[in-house]
Structure formats: structure tokens, C-alpha cells
Amino acid sequence: MFENIHFHGQFRTYQQKILDNADRYLQDGRIHIVAAPGSGKTILGLELIRRLQSPCIILSPTTTIRNQWGERFSENFLIGEESDKYVSYDLDRPAPITSVTYQALYAAMKRAEDMAERCETTSAKNAEDEIDYASFDFIKEIKRYGIKTICLDEAHHLQNEWQKALENFLAAMKGEIKTIALTATPPYDAKPNEWKRYIRVCGEIDEEIFVPELVKQGTLCPHQDYLYFNYPTDAETADFMAYRERAITATSEFLSSGLVEKAYERLIGLSDDYDFLYANTKDIIAFLVMCSKTGIRVDKKIIRSLTSGNILPFPTAERIELAVNFLIKSKLLSEDERKHCIAIFKRRDVIEHGEVVLGLDERLKKKLVSSVGKLKSIDKIVRSESEDKKERLRLLVLTDYIKKENLSIIGSGADPDSVSVVSVFETIRRTGVSAGALSGSLVILPDSCADIIRLQADFTLSPLGRTGYSAYDFRADNREKVRIVGELFEQGIINVLVGTKSLLGEGWDAPCVNSLILASFVGSFMLSNQMRGRAIRTDKNQPDKTANIWHLVTVERPYLYAENLREKFSRITNENKNELVSFDFETVSRRFDCFVAPNYETGEIESGIARVTILKPPFDENGIERINGEMILRSRESGKLRAVWQTAISKSARLNEVSDIPKERRTPPFLFINIAIVTALFALFSAGLTTFICSLTRSLFAANAYRLPIAIVSVVVCVFAAIFLRDYLFTKVLAHLNPVRSVRTLAECVLKTMQEVNLISDGAHVKVEADSAGVFIHAELLNASVHDQNLFHGAIKELLSPIENPRYLLIPRAKFGGYIYQFAFACPEALGTKSEYAERLANKLKRSIGYVEAVYTRTEKGRRLILTCRQSSYITYNDQVLYGRRKRVSRWE
Q1: Does pTM surpass 0.85?
Q2: What is the spatial distance between Cα 206 and Cα 857, in angstroms, rounded to a whole number?
Q3: For residues 686 and 724, is the Cβ–Cβ distance under 8 A?
Q4: pLDDT tens for each residue of 406-435
Q5: Cα(first)–Cα(last) distance of the chain, in Å?
């Protein structure tokens, strides 16, 4: 049916590469492609469907994206033919390409399940008869039409009921379906079980097309992320302080209730219960901090048994909160005492979901993140962007809520009280820049647009005071509204468009956008990356386009986090200007883990918030103002930004793929400084010492009578030297002769172990590269799925990082039985789940570093060994050299 259908264009290099390898990827019946927004996934999907030569169902999250498939097919694959005989948007009337939403499939499967239930009820007497999905109209029609391919667009939407419906559908088709999964944002931040379900449907990721490659190909434009900071309003701060005061009052009452003293006495009685102590180390340390706060003289013995010293950490609200919640759930309080404890905090309304919350609760955190203070940031950004880009400005603001009921504030002079479509529009309108608002239920445009729109659609106007703007009530559907307003935006009739992320945040094609403000409070990788994708596409009408992406951050005033709970406002006068206190900043930082762009200083393409190098203390009000000023200045340097991108992507043919994947899902390559040279020098020194001893003995005892004893002594010394050289030079040192060999040896031990226990599939192999000086290296796993790479790189990082709290330690033993603590390693978590796995790794390491013992640490002896190895391991020294400072592993966690 697609025999005479062909793509009328030229595939991009990365698209052609995927198509060339498609047959190999489809051997398991699934192909899973990850590509950034704007990379041409729709064209790629249509070509894969065409090549498979069988009818296909395409599933999309929204009707807008659903319709785009038919439009792209008609524009790029058909010449002079109507698309009606090829494309359908209704499951009841399948066509060669049936493009529907996930919701439509869910509804169809639900209908089938409901029919099954009715059949079971009416045919109870024939209960032995099996009811199969194939007996129902929907599945029968799909099979009758010969559907053999299913394409999952924006596959990251496969969650909850939609995913269940798809799984049931695939089960009903009984393995007859080939799956094409396309997404820009795999759920890398999903929980492990959710990730497994996602992979079970879509298959392992076969190809990833990375942002730098797309910029190099001219598919995406050079772009940069900027942050703009604000403080909460006075009204918001008052709400935060009211909660804080209630939390402080409740805590003071609890500390003076006598419950802490009773719990401490019981803890001392459990000081020999090491299973309890080490299973709750962090909580118990927090409890001891609280005990110290109430004036209890804490026994140094129990402190030493849980830490590597005699000192407790400083009391903070976070530790007090941890301690209280520990007491509520632990055996240190009786049932009545626990109820008393809970009642104290309940009276002050500082319990949420069964846990005490001394910081801000979820409601106030949301209020902080959606602070009205962000409207001032939007005002500043819009004014700056308008001054810089003038009539070329196409700025999009995406937010979460509409608040249509607040329309009365437009033109009234009243201060907006929320971050919503209405309040953001009014903020921008007051700057004098031409603006519009677009959402499912509200469209605001200048009155001057009415004559233009009247030629295309029917509508009614509701003037918004004397502002020159009106609310337009279209009789058309959302698709038509988006098209009309989008054209006005593209033509520059309006320069700023405010919309909701649900309507415009995904699937809306507007390559004219050259500035984006994310006034949405979503922190997930998937949604934030989709929204960002609205701005970074190239535009044929702006060949030199660059894009600015603005992230709004509310900074918490320091006195909201008083560390000394008895002195409510102690941090007003003792502000830590080197600490950026912001729950909102933590959310934005999560976003940056999956965004790549040039480092502000080096120009290297990187991910993570660290690339925004102007985020430097002090973080007081003057410091925040300085940072905001620098952000504005940088956002105006479009020519410099373009040059930085060109330099970065032209340096090497091999782009750093790892940086484009969030750290939660693939750990970056680990840098490691080898000690082989030190070991070799020590071995050579020992051999030289042996020779010197023999010569000295010969000169002292030259008489014939002593020749035999001299010979015996010399032989014995030489034998010991030979054994030493064999064990430490030829067997060990050669395996660590240079940094590449050192890490390769350790990495191969980890990989072989993980393959033997079926954690990583066979066929994967390690590639190790060194820099030109041979000092820094990184290891990566080739011929492996993303999941296997994540697992492997995480294990390598854990093995070669300073020891924290592993389940097993890997400690070499000396010839005479003692532990060699300086060469101890933490057993990676993936291999520490079972003693068998840890012992296998220890056996693999024997060839490299001698006899190694896997030591279980959840005992008194094991805990003490952790503390000893933390202090003695050379890996801590290596970390100090690498980063120029000693990395302090918290002794209290």
C-alpha cells in the first residue's frame, strides 16, 4: 500500500544513519529512538512506517500532535493526491495510517473490557468459555485490517492507564505488532520499576540524537539558559514566617516535654544492638544532636561507635526534623509517648502526611515556587529583550494556570496576586510591548487584530476596559485558534505571547520563538525539556537566530531557615552569604541536569547547573542583583553566543554524548589519578635495598669461614626480593603501569562480574582513554544499552570514589594476614546486594591487587572498618589531588 509513496526530500545525516540501521534495530520487533525537539522525528517515523509496508496505528498525547502526522505525511510523501484514503483519525475506520491519541486507544480498550465484563455476567453458566479480546469489534477490526505496526509518538507519556491500555492491546495482538517508539525526553527521572515498564513496551534505546549534533547540522539554533532571581513578596513572607513560628513553638514544647530524655535513656540501653544502630545511623546521629540541644551530656562512646570522631554536627532544623520523625516511628518511645509527641506537633498544624515538617510544607513550597515576585522578573526580562531585539522579538511565556476569573485586573491598576496567564499578560501589557494570550479557554489580543482575524474565523469580542485589548471568543476549536494566533505571532503583529504549557508546551511548531520564559513550576525532566524545545528550533526567516531560555527562581530570605530554633531570627544578623538558600533553585537545578549548552566560561558544551559559572557568592541582596545584571548583559550577546557554539561543535567530530543524559540515568565518565608510578618506584627501591644489603654483608664478613652463611643470607634476601618483585611489580604493577591500564583492569573486573551475575548483557566491552598527558582518563561501556551503561558507570564511580557507607568493603590482605586499608574499595551497590556478587568481584580483583576480602559492614566490626578505610584509603588522597582539596565525607551520615 506504500509501494508508490516516497519521501520528497533529503534525509538529514543522523536520520539516514538510523534508517540504514533500522533492520538491525528491528530484529526484536521494536525500534526506540531518542531525539531532541525539532530533529525531525515525525518524518523519520513516517519513513519507518513506509518501509515496514503494513498498516500502522500512530499514538500521540494530544490532538494537535495527532493531526501533525497527517499533515506531515501529506506535505512530504504525497504529490497531487488527497490524504483521505491514506490517513484516518478514527480507530473505528482504520486506514494505512491511523493517527489517534493515547486517550482514544484507552477508551477503545476500556470499551472492550466493559464488554468482557458484561459477557461474563450474562454468560455465567458458560464460565468455562474463555473470553478473548479478539472476540470484540475493536480488536477484530484492527486484525481484519491487517495492522502490523504501532508508532508511539512522545512515548514518555506512557504512564498509568494509557500504558496499561497499550500493554493490553499488544497482548491482544499476540506478538504480531512491530513497535516504533519516538521521544525527545525518555523518563530518565522515573522510578526503577516505571523505567522497566517503559522499556518493556518501547525496548532498549537504539539511537540517540544529541543536541550539539543537531546544532552542528543546522536543525537547532545556538541557545543559552539564563536564570533570573527574585525574593518573595511581603505577604508571602508573612505566610512563611507564620508557619515557621508554629514549627518553632511546637519544637520548643517538644524539647521541654521530657520525651527526649526518656528516649535517650532507652538508646543507651541499646548501645550494644549494632544492627539497630547501624541500620539507623543517620537518624540516631540527628537524635543525639537534638539531645545535645536539650542539654543532655551525650556519651562519647556511642558517638565514637557511629562516627569517626567525638564531635556531633551542628544542630539545624533539618536534623531536628529528622530526629523527631525518627522518634515517632522508632522503638525509643512507647505507644503513649509517640501519641503525645504527635499531638504536640498536630496542635501547631506542622504535620503533613504523617510526618513532622519543620521547614515549609508542600503548600507553602508551591507558594514559594509560584511567588508573585516572579512577575517583577518577567517585567525586567521583557523590557530587556524588547530593547535588544526590538521588532524581531518573538518571546513566549509558558505558565501553568489561566485564572480567567481575574480578568478584571487588566487595566485596573491593581497588583496581580498570582503567576497565571492573566497576571503575566497584564504585567507585560504594562511594559508597552505588543502582547497576546492563548489558552484553551481564553484568548486575549489587541483590538487591531479583529479585522485580520475576521477574514478567517467567527468570533465575538469582550473589550478589556480602555486597554486596547479584548478577549476573543472563537467558535473554532483549539487547533484553529492556535493556528490563527500563531500566525499573528510569527508575523510580528504581537511580539510576546503568553500561553499555558498544556496547550503550547508540547507539539506546537513555532520556529519564530527566539526568547522563552519558563514561568511554569514543573521540575520533571520530560516536561521542562519539551517546553524548552519550543524556542531552540531554527527558523528559515531568521537565519542567524539564537534563542534565550529564561528560568525564574525565588530566593528564600535567610531568616526563614533559622538554625538555632530557640533564637527565631538569629540568621538575620548571621546570614551565610556563601549559601544560595532556595527550594526553587533546587527544582531548576534538576532541570539543568538534562539541558546542554556552552559553559559560561570555557565554552564547552555541558549539562548541569555548574556551567552557569556566574552563580558565585555572595548571595546577599547585592549579590543577587549583580547576578541578575550579568544575566541580562549576557542575554544580549547573540553574536558571541553563536561564535561560542560554532567553536564548541567544530572542535571534535565525536561529541560528548554522556553530557546530554541526566546524571540520574548515566553517570559521567570518572576521572582517576593512577598510583602505578609510586608502586613501581617503591618496588625498584626495595630491589636496590636488597642489593645494598648483600654487598654490605659481603664486605663485613669476607673471611672464608663465613662464605657459606653469607651465601645463605644472600639467597634468602634475594628470594624474598624476588617474591616481592613478582607480587608487586610483575603481577600488580604491570596491571597498573599507566592510568589507562589501571582503570581498565578495575573496570574489566567490574564488567566481568556484572556479566556473570546477569546484571549486564554479554557483548558489552570497556573502552578506556587517557588525555594527552596520560594522567586523567575516562572509561565507557560500548555495545551496551543505556541501562547497562548507567549500571556500569555507576559501579565504576562507586568503586573509585571515597568510601561512604557501602554494604561490603573490598579490602586487600597482606602476606601475614593484616588488612591493607590504604588500598580498600567500596563494593558497588549493584554488586553489594548479595554476598555472592561481592565475593565474585573480590576474586576478580585478586589478580590485580592481591588477595582481597569482601567484608560485610552491617556489623560492629564492619562499621569500624568503614571508619578506618575512610581515613586511610588512598582514593581519598586521589580525590584531594584531583579536585585540589580534600573531599570531606560527612561523618554523620
Answers
A1: no
A2: 39
A3: yes
A4: 999 999 999 988 899 999 999 999 999 999
A5: 64
